[in-house]
DNA sequence: AATTGTTCCAACCGCGTCTGG
DNA sequence: GCCAGACGCGGTTGGAACAAT
């Protein structure tokens, strides 16, 4: 019952893109816009599969991409968003204009994980690493119950993060993470992560599902236009109190990210 | 200078979801 | 309602660049 390959692999290039391929892809998308990635390679004269073209465009060639280092504020925002959303890199990227999910994912794995570890925080749970009995925070009780979550923490969703101010009650980076064992044992249950997030209901939502958008998207990322319903994440089951889907008279919205928290997962 | 180890990131892969017939 | 095709996402990998010995 295997899925057929997305493209005819025997006739496609793999590996690093050449400048010529890049120019072909850029030229085609400038002329025709994004969309129909499957047929794009043939139309553009590229020996690549559609997925590869899409990835190259999204992660490297898009003109609105911001290259360069992340700032400390970016770091803290990513940490906060990760605490809230988990490994939803595309959602996180949507809050950082010009950044891609792949870039943030890589940055998380190479920099921020280490940064959190140096703070004595478990990068998965955002809780202090407990060295007692060798258990890490990930094996102990979660910070927040999976359902329902305290509604007061997130007064509303969909959201836009207005504030980039971050405060961790946790020791400052200068503590170098070496004090984690002493500080974690008596830590309160939800002690360390101050998700000081200002949520803004006025965040623009798409008036139509993304898939129906015109091919030539000019927006930085699709997620910046995409409504995000966190109600399910907060323990509100679809069909219960969540009214996101009916909030707009303009028509249906797509909330692809509705899903219950998994066991042991929390926000 | 050569070798080995580490870091980083672009790209690939497989799967879940969405959409149209 | 079902199915197949297409899209988008997250995890993983390959290899280039850099650092240490």
Task: Give a structural overview.
The chain is mostly helical and 267 residues long. Among the domains are: 9-61, Homeodomain-like (Arc Repressor Mutant, subunit A); 72-148 and 162-194, Homeodomain-like (Arc Repressor Mutant, subunit A, Orthogonal Bundle). Helix content is 29%, strand content 1%. It has a two-stranded antiparallel sheet. The radius of gyration is 21 Å and the shape is elongated. The protein binds a DNA duplex (21 and 21 nucleotides) through helix 3 and helix 6.
Average pLDDT value?
61
- What is the alpha-carbon Rg in Å? 21 Å
Amount of beta strand: under 5%
Biggest beta sheet summary: 2 strands, antiparallel
Low-confidence stretches: 132-267
GO molecular function: transcription cis-regulatory region binding
Subcellular location: Nucleus
InterPro entries: Homeodomain-like_sf, Myb_dom, Myb_TF_plants, SANT/Myb
Biased composition (Low complexity): 130-149, 179-206
What are the defining features of this structure?
267 residues; mainly alpha; Arc Repressor Mutant, subunit A; two-stranded antiparallel sheet; 2 strands; 29% helix; elongated; DNA-binding
